[in-house]
UniProtKB/TrEMBL annotation:
Keyword annotations of the record: Metal-binding, Transferase, Zinc
Gene3D superfamilies: Aldolase class I (3.20.20.70)
Species of the source: Stackebrandtia nassauensis (strain DSM 44728 / CIP 108903 / NRRL B-16338 / NBRC 102104 / LLR-40K-21)
Protein name listed in UniProt: 3-keto-5-aminohexanoate cleavage enzyme
Domain of life: Bacteria
Length: 281
């Protein structure tokens, strides 16, 4: 039985491109560390892994060989749905971000607009978004549309109207809240974005939400209250509580799974997540 209406899809974003290993020693940056984290997070209740990788110096990279090895290793050792980031780091050129798709993940992220990103700019031109959307459909990769601000939802409405539904025909978005320069990481923003999702996206569209830093818990609770899903992980949160560093990604997944259970929407099994997102491969 598909339990998607009553259960909670938990995505783990274990690494990101912004934190350094020197500042955050628990950050998984090698393939072995990533694979170990992925297994622990699957056991704790995650069904999707949103992946950024690092090079031999632990710097963010979009190296295609490493991405292919990462997809293969995660498939070999877990049953998780593998979602590669096409956002990369703010410095990554568009052609490298598009090339990520050649690693043939189950899913890939697609950010729906440009946003100030701390002191930087996370650039996502309209033509680039359209190209990413079309190449994902050609390669039968299911997108997760990343929403940093409310206009990104109306841009997605325009994208779907002009260029059609994604591969799998299910629309799933992720609200990334609390980036300095984007929408705030608080409960009222989740409420507004959930409402905008219902008004602007096709019926049956689903959303997850993540709050950066201290927005983590308010966003988690608000998303559960609105029937949304969850993303957690050290890409977004490196403090478990005030002055308490996160031990591991699995610690964050376990807390999300506990919250989901308390909300009477327990963590979604991977098989149900595949059905919800229409991942057939
Ligand atoms: N690292 C950010 C610049 C994504 O993964 O698609 C972009 C990001 C979004 O994390
Ligand atoms: Zn990311």
């Amino acid at each position: 039985m598909l339990t998607s209406m009553t259960s909670t899809l938990i995505t783990v974003a274990p690494t990101g491109a912004e934190s350094s290993k020197a500042d955050v020693p628990a950050l998984p940056v090698t393939l072995d560390e990533l694979v170990a984290t992925a297994g622990d997070c699957e056991a704790a209740g995650a069904s999707v892994i949103h992946v950024h990788i690092r090079d031999a110096e632990a710097q963010p990279t979009l190296d295609l060989g490493r991405l292919k090895d990462t997809v293969a290793a995660l498939r070999e050792s877990t049953n998780l749905i593998v979602q590669l980031s096409t956002g990369g780091a703010v410095t990554d050129p568009e052609e490298h971000r598009l090339r990520v798709l050649e690693a043939a993940p189950d899913m890939a992220s697609c950010t729906m607009g440009t946003v100030n990103f701390g002191d930087d700019v996370f650039m996502n031109r309209w033509e680039f978004i359209v190209e990413l959307h079309q190449r994902m459909r050609d390669r039968r990769i299911v997108p997760e549309y990343e929403i940093f601000d409310v206009g990104h939802l109306t841009s997605l409405e325009r994208l779907l109207n002009q260029h059609g539904l994604p591969h799998g025909e299910h629309v799933h978005v992720d609200f990334v809240l609390g980036v300095p320069g984007g929408a705030p990481g608080d409960a009222s923003t989740v409420t507004a974005f959930a409402e905008a999702t219902r008004r602007h996206l096709p019926p049956g569209s689903t959303f997850s939400a993540t709050g950066i830093g201290r927005g983590t818990l308010p966003v988690m609770f608000a998303s559960l209250a609105h029937g949304g899903h969850l993303r957690v992980g050290m890409e977004d949160t490196v403090s478990y509580a005030r002055r308490v560093p996160v031990d591991s990604n699995a610690q964050l997944v376990a807390r999300a799974a506990d919250a989901a259970l308390l909300a009477q929407r327990p963590a979604m099994p991977v098989a149900d997540a595949r059905k919800l997102l229409n991942i057939t491969g």
